[in-house]
Every structure is written in structure tokens, then in C-alpha cells.
From TrEMBL, chain A:
Record's keyword annotation contains Magnesium: no
Organism encoding this protein: Megasphaera hominis
Enzyme class: translocase
Membrane disposition: Multi-pass membrane protein
Protein name: Ion-translocating oxidoreductase complex subunit E
InterPro entries: NqrDE/RnfAE, RnfE
Chain segments annotated as transmembrane: 20-48, 68-87, 93-112, 124-146, 166-189
UniProtKB/TrEMBL annotation, chain B:
Predominant place of localization: membrane
Coiled coil: none
Full protein name: Ion-translocating oxidoreductase complex subunit D
Gene field: rnfD
Subunit architecture: The complex is composed of six subunits: RnfA, RnfB, RnfC, RnfD, RnfE and RnfG.
């Protein structure tokens, strides 16, 4: 398998958020500000990569019948490390993310990558896959929280952008606005993927004729 | 007749047949006289008097808002259909109705750019992203209004102070709001009236605070009657919705006076005649539409009496829109000639 492909597919083609549509709940809940969204993205990036590596290392010793509890235990351990780290160095962020940090343990995307990639592939492939998926997830979190904080609150990274006369559109700070935004972004990514696919097919046809 | 002549006759017949030029086409063979643009422009015509009254009564900002909402709705429809390489359908008037209804459901003091956002929510988010005219699950104008209500609750509940021309300055409250928080006495103070009769008169002729196009009961009813006369609206729908509100209010407040007031207040008249009868987002069969209207009236009363908002017509229609597919399934008419299977209940 092409190693670059393993890494890059998670960014657009198989973006965990916009294409695989896994773990949608943090996008509605914690992306009200860019800082929160980025922290959530980076947390998932770290957890998914390290979990992929750990699962890949122990994949041959796990009994098939108990593999899901084993994966969950690994994820929970890593998430606890991140929680303790955030608690020690960024207590405000830790408070802002609240229960969603605990929920990272059961995020579908992490379990899905452990099951579909890390349990079948070597350490390097699993690592790259986790990195790619993490990048894709972080980008998704960043883009959503960027739009939501800018329009729904009039700020970016907590700094006022439009001045005091701006009336923020509260709908984007609330879950319904996030739903609409994510829907339109999904449609956009899908359109882009389709046009790329078409271009690739055209190229292949030209190649075979030439 | 000689065989030769007979042959000639047959030849002539065949020639006649050829000249008839019968066209062979698939069904439907009989078409009614109606078309989407015709219906839509008739609805616009039915709405214009009430909108014009709003402009006369609330002043220039109402006119600005109506124009901005209509133009931006049409422009969004045009841009989206161009962008998606779809057939441009702005001439059928459906976007004009959406813009007009949206403006008529918003307070007259609304900043003009909020009307543009509302049109965006109505046309792009609600209508076009679901596939265009005929595919939207919800009434587009009410989706626009609900989105604005969530986004800018203060601007959407700030009602202009009347010029003092008809009744004395009543700032920042609609009759429904006053009644909800102050009761009957506050309502009498609001209208400067001593009896229900003068309140009804003000309500009936639209001399009250409210959204741009919802105040003038008489013009809205006339517009609705025009649509019923043309056959675009089933009279049962507005009647059931308004009657449900009236009857329940009469029971809850033990007062027929309050019931009559509630029936004319808020957006109930415009909602019952123009929104609950939407051909796309309401059920197809008459029976279904009647259940729909009953539900709308019920939820309106629930929100007005128990809810946090003084007015619930918008949300009641949106909530019932979500039930439309279920109602359609419930009242599905039996196929002509079909027989129930043996053992079926």
C-alpha cells in the first residue's frame, strides 16, 4: 500500500467528519469557539494516533472475542492521560470541554480506525492512518469552529473582530445552526470529491486512448 | 360501382386518414387550466392588499423590508439554480411569495439586512437544498422567520411605536404579549378602550402593533376568500385552525370575548389562510389537511397559554409540517376498485 495515500486519504477523500460522518457530536457541542474546537481536534488526533499504534502492536495477542473491550481500555487509558495533562496545564480549557473530553473514549471514529485498520496492519501503516485521520478531524473541527465563532459570536480566538456594533447571529452558536453548517460543508466536500473523481476518470480514459 | 371506382374511394379514405395527422402521446390527455405560475401570482395578488396596509400603517421601513425580502429571495433562488446548473424558475412567483410572506411575518422595525438573512434561510437552506419547489419539508417563510427569531431575538420582538395617529403610543408590545403578561386590564389600557367592541374594531381593521402584514384581519380574510373562491385553498383548513384556537381559548379563559380576541391576534389569520394551506408542506388529501389544521390550532393554543413566547402560530405550523408525511400515510385513500385482503382488519 502506498504510504502517502494511507496518510492523505484521511484529510479530504475519507475525511472522518465530512465523508465518513463519524463522531458528529463534538462538532455540535464544543465548536462554539476556535480554541475549544482546536483542542478537541488535537486531543482526538493524539488519541487516535497513539491508540492505532498500541492496537497495532498488540493485535496478534488479543483474543478476537474480547477485542472491543480491549480497544476501549486502551483508548480510555490514553484519554485519561490527556485529561490529566489538560487539567494540569490548561484548567480553563479542561472546564470548557467538560464531559466531551470523557466522551472521546467512545468516539466512533477512534474505535472504527482501531477495528478497520490497526487490527489488520503493521505499526507504520496504523500510525500514518491515525495521523491522517487526526489531521482531517482537526481541520474539520477548526473550520466549523472558525465559522461558528466568527458569525455566532463576532470573535476569533476570543478577540473581537467586527466591533461592538455587530449583532451576532445566535443561531450559529446554537446546535441547529451547527447542523445546517455541517450539512452544507458535507455537501461541499462531496461535490469536490466527485469532481476530482470525474477528472481522474477522464485522465485515465485519455491515457488509455493515447 | 366499378371496382376501379371503389379502389379510388379507398384511396381517398386513406388519404383523409393521413391528413388527419393524429398525434399519439402518453397521458395525461386532459389538462386543467391551472399552472404553478398562475396559482403563485394569484396568491401574491391575495397578499398584496394586506402588505400595502402594513406599509401605510407602519411607514417606510416596512416597505423597505418587503422589497428587500422579495428581491433577495428571488436573487438567492436565481443564484442557486445557476450555480447548480438547474432550470431557473424565478418567473413562477414562488420565491416572490416566500419573500413577501417572510417580510409580512416580521416586525416592521427589522433592520433591512436581517430580511436578507431570512430570505437566505428560507430559499437556500429550507427550499433549494431540499430540491427546490415541491420538495421542501417546511414552509420556507416560517423557517426564515424561526431562524431570525433564534438569531436575533431582540430585533425580532421589538415592535415599532405607533405614530400616535390611531391609538396612543404603545411601545414595544403586541396585544398578545400585553394580554399574556398583564391580562385583560392591561389589554384595555393598551387600546385605551372601555369595552371589547372598540378592541375588536381596532383588531379587525389592523390598528394595532404586530408584524408588517399580520395586523389587518379584514384584508387578510378577503385575500383568503379570494383564494378559496379560485379553488386554491380548501375552506376547511383556515376555518378549523381558527375555530380550534377560538374554542379552546373560550374554554381555557371562560370568556368568549377573549376567544374572539385571540382569533384575531398575532399571526393566526395570515398563518391559517396562507401558511397552513401551503400546497407543498401540508398534507395532500382534504382529510389530512383537516387533521393538520386541527394540530396547528392545538399547538398554537399550547404555546400561547403555556409556552415562553406570546405567539405560537409559526412554530405550530413548522411542527405540524414535520408530521405531514405521517398524516398523509394515515389518511391514504383506498385505490379505486381495490378490495381489502381477506383477514385484514
Amino acid at each position: 500500500m502506498n504510504l502517502w495515500k494511507v496518510f492523505s486519504r484521511g484529510i479530504i477523500e475519507e475525511n472522518p467528519y465530512f465523508v465518513l460522518a463519524l463522531s458528529l457530536c463534538p462538532g455540535l457541542a464544543v465548536t462554539t469557539s476556535v480554541i475549544n474546537g482546536l483542542t478537541m481536534g488535537l486531543t482526538v488526533w493524539f488519541v487516535i494516533t497513539s491508540n492505532n499504534v498500541v492496537v497495532s502492536i498488540i493485535r496478534k495477542t488479543i483474543n478476537k472475542k474480547v477485542r472491543v473491550p480491549v480497544y476501549i481500555t486502551c483508548i480510555a487509558t490514553i484519554v485519561t492521560c490527556v485529561q490529566l495533562f489538560l487539567q494540569a496545564f490548561a484548567p480553563d480549557l479542561y472546564k470548557a470541554l467538560g464531559v466531551y473530553l470523557d466522551l472521546v473514549v467512545v468516539f466512533a471514529i477512534i474505535l472504527a480506525r482501531a477495528e478497520s485498520v490497526a487490527s489488520k496492519n503493521g505499526v507504520l501503516v496504523s500510525f500514518l492512518d491515525g495521523m491522517g485521520m487526526g489531521v482531517g478531524f482537526t481541520i474539520a473541527m477548526f473550520v466549523i469552529s472558525f465559522v461558528r465563532e466568527l458569525i455566532g459570536n463576532g470573535t476569533l480566538f476570543g478577540v473581537d473582530v467586527f466591533g461592538p456594533s455587530y449583532m451576532p447571529a445566535l443561531i450559529l452558536a446554537l446546535p441547529p445552526g451547527a447542523f445546517m453548517l455541517i450539512g452544507f460543508m458535507m455537501a461541499g466536500v462531496k461535490m469536490w470529491n466527485q469532481s476530482r473523481e470525474k477528472a481522474k476518470q477522464l485522465k485515465a480514459m485519455e491515457g488509455s486512448e493515447g | 360501382m366499378s371496382p376501379e371506382a371503389k379502389g379510388q374511394t379507398i384511396g381517398k379514405d386513406a388519404k383523409d386518414m393521413q391528413e388527419l395527422k393524429l398525434t399519439v402521446s402518453s397521458s395525461p390527455h386532459v389538462r386543467c387550466n391551472e399552472s404553478i405560475p398562475k396559482i403563485m401570482w394569484n396568491v401574491v395578488a391575495a397578499l398584496v392588499p394586506a402588505a400595502a396596509f402594513g406599509v401605510y400603517y407602519f411607514g417606510i421601513n416596512a416597505l423597505v423590508n418587503i422589497i428587500v425580502a422579495v428581491v433577495s429571495a428571488v436573487v438567492f433562488e436565481f443564484l442557486w439554480e445557476k450555480m447548480m446548473h438547474k432550470k431557473v424558475t424565478i418567473k413562477d412567483g414562488s420565491a416572490v411569495i416566500t419573500g413577501l410572506l417572510l417580510a409580512m411575518c416580521c416586525p416592521p422595525s427589522l433592520p433591512w439586512w436581517m430580511s436578507i438573512v431570512g430570505s437566505f434561510l428560507a430559499i437556500v437552506v429550507c427550499k433549494q437544498s431540499m430540491g427546490g419547489l415541491g420538495y421542501n419539508l417546511f414552509n420556507p417563510a416560517h423557517v426564515g422567520r424561526a431562524g431570525l427569531m433564534v438569531s436575533w431575538p431582540v430585533a425580532m420582538t421589538t415592535w415599532t411605536q405607533l405614530n400616535g395617529q390611531v391609538i396612543d403610543g404603545v411601545a414595544g408590545a403586541t396585544p398578545l404579549n400585553v394580554f399574556k403578561h398583564g391580562g385583560q386590564d392591561a389589554l384595555f389600557t393598551l387600546f385605551g378602550a372601555n369595552d371589547w367592541g372598540s378592541i375588536y374594531q381596532s383588531m379587525f381593521f389592523g390598528m394595532r402593533n404586530g408584524s408588517m402584514g399580520e395586523t389587518c384581519t379584514v384584508l387578510l380574510i378577503l385575500g383568503g376568500l379570494y383564494l378559496i373562491w379560485r379553488g386554491y385553498v380548501n375552506w376547511q383548513v383556515p376555518v378549523i385552525m381558527i375555530a380550534t384556537v377560538g374554542i379552546l381559548m373560550a374554554i381555557i379563559y371562560q370568556s368568549p370575548n377573549v376567544a374572539l380576541f385571540e382569533m384575531m391576534a398575532g399571526g393566526l389569520i395570515i398563518g391559517a389562510f396562507f401558511m397552513a394551506t401551503d400546497m407543498v408542506s401540508a398534507p395532500i388529501t382534504l382529510k389530512g389537511q383537516m387533521i393538520f389544521a386541527l394540530g396547528c390550532g392545538l399547538i398554537t393554543v399550547l404555546i400561547r397559554v403555556l409556552g415562553g413566547y406570546p405567539e405560537g402560530v409559526c412554530y405550530s405550523i413548522l411542527l405540524m409540517n414535520t408530521l405531514t408525511p405521517l398524516i398523509d400515510r394515515l389518511v391514504k385513500p383506498q385505490v379505486f376498485g381495490a378490495v381489502k385482503a381477506k383477514g385484514a382488519k
